[in-house]
Design brief:
Layout: E1 2-9, H1 15-30, E2 35-42, E3 49-56, H2 59-66, H3 70-79, E4 88-92
Antiparallel strand pairs: 1-3, 1-4, 2-3
Length: 97
C-alpha cells in the first residue's frame, strides 16, 4: 500500500469552500482504480493548511492512472481554485508498524 500525502495551502478565508470542494471530489477518488480511501486533515496550528491523505494499491495507481484520468481534471477544477500554490505531494509506504 502507498500513502499519498498532499500538503495543501488554501486562500485565507477560503477554508469552508475548499472543504466543500473536497467533499464534492470524494467520489472521484473512491471510484478511482486502486484507491483504498482518503482523508482530509486540517492542521490545527495553521488553519489554512491541510493534508490530503489517499491510500493507493500502487504508486502507479496515483501517478499514472489517476493523474491521467478525467477524474483528476475534475478534482483540480473543484479544489484547485482554493490553492495558494501547487500542493506538495509525497508518497510513503509502511516499513514498520
Amino acid at each position: 500500500m502507498i500513502l499519498e500525502m498532499a500538503h495543501i495551502e488554501v486562500t485565507p478565508g477560503g477554508e469552508a469552500g475548499f472543504e466543500q470542494a473536497v467533499a464534492q471530489a470524494t467520489p472521484l477518488f473512491q471510484a478511482a482504480p486502486g484507491c483504498g480511501g482518503m482523508e482530509l486533515h486540517r492542521v490545527v496550528e495553521t488553519p489554512g493548511r491541510y493534508v490530503l491523505m489517499v491510500r493507493w494499491d500502487t504508486l502507479e495507481d496515483h501517478t499514472v492512472r489517476f493523474r491521467d484520468s478525467e477524474a483528476f481534471q475534475q478534482w483540480r477544477a473543484l479544489a484547485g481554485p482554493h490553492f495558494t500554490s501547487p500542493p506538495h505531494v509525497q508518497h510513503t509506504r509502511i516499513v514498520l508498524s
